[in-house]
Specification:
Layout (H helix, E strand, L loop, with lengths): L1 E12 L2 E12 L3 E5 L6 H9 L7 E9 L2 E2 L5 H7 L4 E4 L3 H4 L6 H10 L6 H14 L5 H5 L8 H13 L5 E5 L7 H18 L2 E6 L2 H7 L2 E6 L2 E7 H6 L4 H8 L16 E14 L2 E14 L3 E5 L6 H8 L7 E6 L2 E2 L5 H10 E4 L3 H4 L6 H11 L6 H14 L16 H13 L5 E5 L7 H18 L2 E6 L2 H7 L2 E6 L2 E7 H6 L4 H10 L3
Parallel strand pairs: 3-8, 3-9, 6-7, 7-8, 13-18, 13-19, 16-17, 17-18
Antiparallel strand pairs: 1-2, 1-4, 4-5, 9-10, 11-12, 11-14, 14-15, 19-20
Length: 520
Amino acid sequence: MTLLSLQSVTAGYGSLPVLKDVSLEMEKGQILALVGESGSGKSTVMKSIAGLPSFGVSVMKGSIRFDGKDMIALSPEQRRRILGEDLCMIFQNPTTSMNRIRKIRNQFLESYRSHRNGGDEEALQQVRTTFQKLGLADTDRILDSCPFELSGGMCQRVAIALAMVMEPKLLLADEPTSALDVVSQQQVLEEMLLLRERFGTSVLLVTHNIAAAARVADRLVILHDGCIEEAGAKDALIASPQKEYTKLLLNNVPRLCRTERRREKTEVLLQVSGIEKTYLKNGVRVRAVENVSLALEKGEILGIVGESGSGKSTLARQILRLEKPSRGQITVCGKDIARLKKKDVKGLYQAEQIIFQNPETSFNPRMRIRESIRDTLRNLAGIRSKPQIEEKIDELMRDVGLAPELANRYPFQLSGGQCQRAAIARALAASPQLLICDEATSALDVTVQAGIVSLLRSLARGRGMSMIFISHDLALVSTLCDRVVVMKDGRCIEQGTAADIVAHPKQEYTKLLLRSASFR
């Protein structure tokens, strides 16, 4: 039986159409995934269904019917009764959709009271029942926490539970896994299967990750440039895609690589010996990194993989001397970086550069890209001649696959992939011997991600540059890196060549990462 139907929908923002003649249907109890790159119109479909004025989406043509009701013709009061009760929505970043500094208990109660007349005890009993059905333990601790006190994966699971208290017929999930590590992603995806099994809920999943969609969806709808490119049953579409765009998406999904990479041994560039880092939190000492040792040779690409909170980024900050380790030693080019004098620190940052997960926020939003790269060339590369600087900026932009004129734009005027390439150009301006990529591709579409990984590989080989690639995606790491370090709870639990880690994992946690990363 049809629960949701879109017929020839054209919708957009103001007079600009984003969706063009989109038609799709969902049956009760079905999980349907809308897949496509950023800007394809996926989220606009979802916003058109919900129809909230704050979304700013106007439906210019076509019809949207949910559970027999014409969603476009609903009055604000009729829409309010449906949203949150029969139809719920969860977002990409749950901490922004909830009040970060209010206890989750109060947010649950407020949501419940807006739709039901029962008392607080009845509401809390419903919450506990929902938590139990979704396999969330320690209910009272979660209810007495604020969102900022929970991990990203737990926060997303709580957002799902919050939506499911009313036992809606349809859940709209907008990129619910894109900001999560692979283990948390798997938990959230499994939760969606539980929603159908235990509540009979239908799920409309919006994602750019076709591998994630393939794990849970019954049907896939591929969107491209506001139009439906291809649609069909999941297994049939993945086994035999008809459209070139669908083939491109599938080909760019990272697969576990078991091929051994042979390289000549070279001298050690980076040596990390027995590093520990502890923080004082609420009067209690928390150990973020515990007795980690590793070495990186010149020209080698090392992957550091693990879930959120495993200590990957904390270790990177120690290597960059942004923080001092509580114990242990780090040497770069044979020099103990903890003992460097102030006048020598500049030389360290010429040798080491970093690329962050969110490229736009790593730039000064009031400076054009050209100005940011110009500062690096002056301060770290020592180039003073204006014509030389401008020529070098153009050369760096071309090296990362960007037109030189794009350097005249502000960060917000570039796409995510373009902005990340510009961040790489800025890092290369210092001619570093070591480039650290901290989750540099995790927020990007699979096609853009594949382009960035290919670029990083060619730059490392072409310049003889060493690289540390930090990620939660073991499949992606295995395609790029020579060796892999697996981290959990601040400790290095396993390390070896990428091929050996994939083919012969020793630790149960590594096996879990491999299962989560495999594309079926």
